[in-house]
Amino acid sequence: MVFPVRAAIVAVVIVVMVIVTIVVFTMLIMWTPVVITPVIMRLPPVMVAPAAAVPVMPVVILVANLQFYRQVRE
Q1: pLDDT tens track for 21-57
Q2: What keywords would UniProt list here (predicted)?
């Protein structure tokens, strides 16, 4: 048995699910260094050095800078 569902309700549910998915992925990306750091601290420096040369989250730094400048201007 299929219940009648309005298209607007389906659209709202899809939008909410997309927003929740983006928020969850953002939280996971932000928490990744916190989880990985204790593991990296136990590794020898030879294994850590090549990985440390790769930038992990330059986008987060850019967003943080933009937020800072927006607060200063206001």
Answers
A1: 988 888 877 776 666 666 666 666 555 555 555 555 5
A2: Membrane, Transmembrane, Transmembrane helix
Q: Which two tokens stand for residue 31?
A: 């928490």
Annotated domain spans of the chain: 7-73
Do the Cβ atoms of 59 and 30 come closer than 8 Å? no
Q: Do residues 68 and 38 touch, judged by C-beta distance below 8 A?
A: no
pTM of the model: 0.40
> Which residue's structure tokens are 């997309």?
18
Cα distance between residue 1 and residue 4, in whole Å? 10
